[in-house]
């Protein structure tokens, strides 16, 4: 998540992806063939990616710590991070969809189905599965707490 967006934000502020060199820039240039907003400074995309790098990056570190140390707040952080990721995905694509997708290359099978649909669906599927995991775990905790409470009444 923040590992790939950090260099994008940096390159966006020091020029633009289309005119940058290097491995990371070449990866973003390739994705830019599917979504042109990633090639030049698009304020919506850069704003969302700054939020991703700062907030989601921090939340990801806190979540790793919470998982490793088995902290009580793990699922709260996990749910928050997943919702942030889903919101970011929605705000990345919905404005372009509402305008008729002028920046999305929907004519090429590769760019549409592989780059746009498959790669971006991963950013929906994984948060969705993690939200489901948190739901199941919180439900178990609730039922466990409820059954303990009934024993002492």
UniProtKB/TrEMBL annotation:
Domain EXPERA per the UniProt entry, residue ranges: 1-131
InterPro entries: EBP (IPR007905), EXPERA (IPR033118)
Example of a GO cellular component annotation carried by this entry: membrane
Entry GO MF terms: cholestenol delta-isomerase activity
Subcellular location(s) per record: Membrane
Primary location: membrane
Domain of life, per lineage: Eukaryota
Keywords: Membrane, Transmembrane, Transmembrane helix
The keyword Transmembrane appears for this protein: yes
GO biological process: sterol metabolic process
Spans traversing the lipid bilayer: 45-68, 75-93, 113-132
Membrane topology: Multi-pass membrane protein
Family stated for the protein in its record: Belongs to the EBP family.
Name by which UniProt lists this protein: EBP like
Lineage, uppermost ranks: Eukaryota, Metazoa, Chordata, Craniata, Vertebrata
């Amino acid at each position: 998540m923040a590992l790939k967006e950090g260099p994008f934000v940096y390159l966006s502020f020091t020029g633009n992806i289309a005119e940058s060199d290097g491995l990371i820039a070449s990866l973003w240039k390739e994705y830019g063939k599917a979504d042109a907003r990633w090639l030049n400074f698009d304020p919506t995309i850069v704003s969302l990616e700054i939020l991703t790098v700062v907030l989601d990056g921090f939340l990801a570190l806190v979540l790793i710590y919470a998982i490793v140390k088995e902290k009580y707040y793990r699922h709260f952080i996990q749910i928050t991070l997943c919702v942030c990721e889903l919101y970011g995905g929605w705000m990345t694509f919905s404005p372009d969809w509402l305008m008729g997708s002028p920046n999305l290359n929907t004519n090429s099978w590769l760019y549409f189905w592989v780059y746009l649909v498959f790669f971006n669906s991963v950013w929906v599927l994984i948060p969705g599965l993690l939200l489901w995991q948190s739901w199941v775990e919180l439900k178990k905790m609730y039922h466990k707490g409820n059954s303990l409470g009934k024993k002492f009444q």
